[in-house]
Write a structure and sequence with these properties.
With about 350 residues, the protein is mainly alpha-helical. The chain is about 45% helix and about 5% strand.
Length: about 350
């Protein structure tokens, strides 16, 4: 199948590698790589995962789809070849990103997928290689890779080639430490452009907020901003969070910092740390009680109220909600003094107790 761009075989690969080199140069010039605190384990998970995904996982899965298509559905081969190129490109990109939005969102809402995606959020520094930091098995289930194979089989190889280049530019730039969107936000003349751009595409600020450690900073939202290339899905399904600012703390709360063998090779390899979600037999304990917790709040301070009932720091969130469909509630104290915070999680006046535990 002809998947050349500009008449050059494998041009899409050259362009993606060129994007990587471009951002490497920018980050080196910006001094980021000279001051990085990344460990050897971090590099193995990020650069190593990039190599395995690019050279092994993705090519093999796409080849498998093509072989299965030729074997069982030969009549459907090149079914979409008659589509105009730009129509084919838009069809590929929108379905690809729609699939990725839901896969990414499910990876935050379902325990098994969360454990595979969790390494992505353990990174305490941003950088474009973070985009490849997931457990190896995570990519086997990723619908986008199967979609690449299917769309190629159906005759959309050229659209796939250009689509992957455009998509990688957005993904790499949104994980990078080069915040190009700051120029748009700070320049009054460019702010209308920023408003349009961020309502269509994922920007660094939008995605960095997803990697922030906690909503308590008023910038981050680790349980929102799931889009990959387009921000339209987050807006459509109510998970968009715009701040135009960047977190100062990245990573996970209460991270036991397992070795890369456990995070990258899970579930084939488990953690030896019993505190880790990746250890054998680990279960999250329900910590709800029928009595409210009395706490002293400080006026103006932000608090993150646990709504999943799994936090070991009740009534406040400790990150235990990851891998569930629950999300903590951010609230700001309106006055100094004691307050009764709900611990049964049935209140209709969250975070405050409304005596629902008595019913």
């Amino acid at each position: 199948m002809n998947n050349t761009l500009l008449g050059i075989p494998n041009m899409d690969i050259y362009l993606v590698m060129g994007i990587l080199v471009f951002f490497i140069i920018l980050e080196v010039i910006g001094g980021y790589w000279q001051k990085t605190q990344r460990t050897t384990s971090d590099w193995i998970q990020e650069f190593g995962a990039f190599l395995v995904l690019s050279l092994l996982t993705k090519p093999l899965l796409v080849l498998l789809v093509l072989l299965l298509g030729n074997q069982f559905f030969p009549a459907q081969q090149a079914l979409l070849a008659s589509l105009p190129f730009w129509g084919s490109l838009l069809l590929f990109l929108f379905i690809d990103d729609f699939l990725q939005y839901w896969y990414h969102r499910f990876a935050h809402e379902y325990e098994f997928l969360w454990k595979l995606h969790r390494p992505h959020h353990q990174a305490e520094e941003m950088g474009f290689f973070v985009s490849y930091r997931n457990a190896a098995v995570y990519y086997l289930f990723m619908p986008n890779i199967w979609w690449i194979g299917l769309f190629t089989f159906l005759g959309g190889a050229k659209a796939v080639a250009l689509g992957l280049v455009l998509k990688q530019f957005i993904i790499i730039s949104s994980h990078s430490t080069i915040p190009y969107d700051k120029v748009l936000y700070r320049n009054k003349f460019l702010q209308p452009l920023a408003s349009v751009w961020e309502r269509i595409f994922i920007t660094p600020a939008f995605h960095h907020a997803h990697h922030g450690k906690s909503q308590r900073d008023g910038i981050s939202d680790p349980n929102g901003n799931f889009g990959n290339m387009f921000s339209i899905w987050d807006q459509l399904f109510g998970t968009a969070h715009y701040s135009r600012e960047f977190p100062t703390d990245y990573g996970l709360e209460n991270d036991p910092k397992e070795p890369w063998t456990a995070t990258y090779l899970y579930p084939l390899v488990a953690s030896d740390d019993p505190r880790s979600e990746l250890s054998r037999g680990f279960t999250k304990k329900d910590t709800r009680t029928n009595e409210p917790t009395k706490v002293n709040l400080k006026e103006g301070e932000r608090y993150l109220f646990c709504q999943c009932g799994l936090s070991q720091n009740q009534p406040f969130c400790d990150g235990s909600h990851h891998g569930t469909k629950f999300k903590p509630l951010l609230f700001k104290a309106q006055r100094n003094g004691p307050a009764r915070l709900c611990n049964c999680k049935r209140t209709g006046a969250a975070p405050f107790c409304d005596d629902s535990h008595l019913n």
